[in-house]
Amino acid sequence: MSDSPTERALQLLALLARAAEPMSARAMAEALELPLSTAYRHLQVLKKWDWVQEHARTGLYEPGPMSVQLAHGFDQHSWLMQAARPELEALSARTGESAGLLCYLHGHIVCLDLVESQHALRCSFVKGVARSTVRGASAKALLAHLPEALVQPLLAEALAESGSLAADDSVASFMNGLQQIRERGYAVSEHEVDQGVWGVSAPVLLPRAQLIATVSLMAPSQRAGKHITEWIQQTCLAADRIRQRLLHR
């Protein structure tokens, strides 16, 4: 048994997740060979953060609201990735470049899936990794379809933390750029996140402009030059085909 308090809490949560029914603190303590007082202490923290909940009448513990939300998010992203994977593979095969599926989650741009090119490409996006950023085609394609109340703090944070945005990249001009992205249906960037990398990103939107994710194609600038128009079109078509798959699942 690890002495790490974090691992003990996670072991309790994992035990409860695998259980077929609610469990008592004593049963969980015995299963994990923990002192009952230790189990109670960790359960109180998990309960405070809504990962577990205690039944008012029986005193038994079961997964809480946060656990349910996590499960819902997993299910949502699972059917999304099932719909997206064939289109990412086809887009990568047609262009010979790297194709990714990204989403916005709690202030981060998260790479859900990535089909990598056989060519060498120095790219910051890695499957499963979250990036807090307002730069690059992927981020801007997502931010363009988020409420302004979410976008403004992200931009302010980026300005405060890095100071890397140029003077003319004011909040007003940035928001104007997002409007242009909404109007044309895709975002492009070059050298913004990774030097020498060109990218295009098209959002996957369900009815009523519900943002699900964005499809991104990334390539070295020197290879992208003569293919830009074609690759923008291919990326937008891939995003639309994913949308159609989701609507008819």
TrEMBL record:
This protein's record includes keyword Membrane: no
Keywords: DNA-binding, Transcription, Transcription regulation
Location of the IclR-ED domain: 66-249
Keyword DNA-binding tagged: yes
Organism superkingdom: Bacteria
Record InterPro entries: GAF-like_dom_sf (IPR029016), HTH_MetabolicPath_Reg (IPR050707), Tscrpt_reg_IclR_C (IPR014757), Tscrpt_reg_IclR_N (IPR005471), WH-like_DNA-bd_sf (IPR036388), WH_DNA-bd_sf (IPR036390)
Pfam families given in the database record: HTH_IclR, IclR_C
Domain HTH iclR-type positions: 3-65
PANTHER family hit by this protein: HELIX-TURN-HELIX TRANSCRIPTIONAL REGULATOR, ICLR FAMILY, HTH-TYPE TRANSCRIPTIONAL REPRESSOR ALLR
Protein name: Transcriptional regulator
Organism of derivation: Undibacterium squillarum
